[in-house]
Design brief:
This protein has about 350 residues and is of the alpha/beta class. It folds into 2 domains: about 210 residues, Medium-chain alcohol dehydrogenases, catalytic domain (Quinone Oxidoreductase, Chain A, domain 1, Alpha-Beta Complex); about 130 residues, Rossmann fold (3-Layer(aba) Sandwich). About 25% of the residues lie in helices and about 25% in strands. The chain contains 11 helices and 18 strands. Helix 9 links the parallel strand 14 and strand 15. The chain is globular. It binds nicotinamide-adenine-dinucleotide and zinc ion (2 copies). The site of one zinc ion has 5 residues, from loops.
């Protein structure tokens, strides 16, 4: 019997447009599930993946996408955790070994044997995805699939990153980069009782940041952002979260931190950035990397959305628009997050903005 085919957007060569083509629908092996994709967010990481930006490159050809939400369509032998029809998310942390020192201490995100959705495993820019039931996100009722999609990468990553700054309620956090990640980070930070300084080079992103509750906005194009943040926060932000996919933002971010504060690095532009060693040492500043979040962080970050504290600003597009979406993402022309809506086949666009709907604490 011939294998059934699905539509997928495939990276066949780094730095080239994705190829929209047919691909075999996967069948679940022992302990695996197949998810029928309903929605998948487009993260800047997908662009880095398709460009082959990072030292560890995916094997070509591959299907990107790690903000996929859908219904379990088939379960392999031995699967008991989920059943057909359950709604799950297939995230960046596709699987981990479950028994190394990191997995045992609930740091599965840094498991040396971790697999990554849409990177080392095929992802959600396809109508069906193979997944590991131990690592899927469980999507609560009351959240539409299109709304949940950005939360399983952009949401969890900023939520975890904010926790990693160790900023306390009433203290300042500066969030550099107010795109897909940052616009959710602002909402998590406000819901966690922090004062938020939003930093972006696009005034339109800062306008959205204000609508979402940012207390202060800074545009590095209009002067030294470190000085502006230090002035506006009376000495610097207790926590800084850098989501911008731009190396210059990292150097600038260190300049925004208060003495004894923590700067959490989340954005992943290729390359290195210089650290002003004297300032970091003499001011006892912590610089810390943060990589998505654990399954516990996932459940917590989704719960904020269920309670109406966080809502993604989404633009819905069909899979066929993927190359145009990538171009816009590269040029900073996506207002917040584009989500591929698998119920869409035409070219129409829908945007749903959260600002008026948020429940403020
Ligand atoms: P995005 O394109 O949606 O948003 C990026 C934002 O940064 C835009 O608003 C842009 O205007 C802004 N920006 C660009 N240059 C800037 C600068 N110099 N200063 C301030 N703002 C600037 O991207 P995204 O989907 O939010 O992803 C952002 C980055 O985070 C990417 O590098 C991505 O790979 C990375 N990422 C990391 C993790 C992790 O676990 N660490 C998870 C997801 C994404
Ligand atoms: Zn992502
Ligand atoms: Zn492990």
């Amino acid at each position: 019997m011939a294998t059934k085919k699905m539509h997928a957007a495939v990276v066949e060569q780094f730095g080239k447009p994705l190829v929209l083509r047919e691909w075999d629908i996967p069948t679940p092996g022992v302990g695996q599930i197949v998810v029928k994709t309903e929605a998948c967010g487009v993260c800047h990481t997908d662009l880095h993946a398709a460009d082959g930006d990072w030292p560890l490159k995916p094997t070509l050809p591959f299907i990107p996408g790690h903000e996929a939400i859908g219904l379990v369509a088939a379960v392999g032998a031995g699967v008991t955790l989920v059943k057909e029809g359950d709604r799950v998310g297939v995230p960046w942390l596709y699987s981990a070994c479950g028994h190394c020192e990191y997995c045992l201490s609930a740091w599965e995100t840094v498991c040396p044997d971790a697999q990554f959705g849409g990177y080392t495993k095929n992802g959600g820019f396809a109508e069906y995805i193979l997944a590991d039931p131990d690592y899927v996100a469980h999507i609560p009722k009351g959240l539409a699939s299109t709304e949940a999609a950005p939360l399983i990468c952009a949401g969890i990553t900023t939520y975890k990153g904010i926790k990693q700054t160790e900023a306390k309620p009433g203290q300042w956090i500066a969030i550099s980069g107010c795109g897909g990640l940052g616009h959710l980070g602002i909402q998590y930070a406000k819901a966690m009782g922090l004062l938020v300084c939003a930093v972006d080079i696009e005034d339109s992103k800062l306008a959205l940041a204000k609508e979402l509750g940012a207390d202060l906005t800074v545009n590095p194009r209009h002067g030294d952002p470190g000085a502006a943040v230090k002035k506006g926060t009376d000495g610097g932000a207790h926590g800084v979260l850098i989501t911008a996919p731009s190396l210059v933002a990292f150097k600038q971010g260190i300049g925004m931190v208060r003495r004894r504060g923590t700067c959490v690095l989340v954005g992943l532009p290729p390359g290195d950035f210089p650290v002003p060693l004297f300032d970091v040492v003499a001011n006892c500043i912590t610089i810390r990397g943060s990589f998505v979040g654990t399954r516990e962080d996932m459940a917590e970050s989704l719960d904020f959305a269920v309670k109406g504290k966080v809502k993604a600003d989404i633009e819905l597009q069909p899979l066929s628009a993927i190359n145009d979406i990538f171009k816009r993402l590269e040029h900073g022309d996506v207002p917040a997050r584009v989500v591929i809506d698998y119920s869409k086949t035409g070219q129409s666009t829908t945007r749903s903005t959260p600002a008026q709907e948020l429940v403020h604490a």
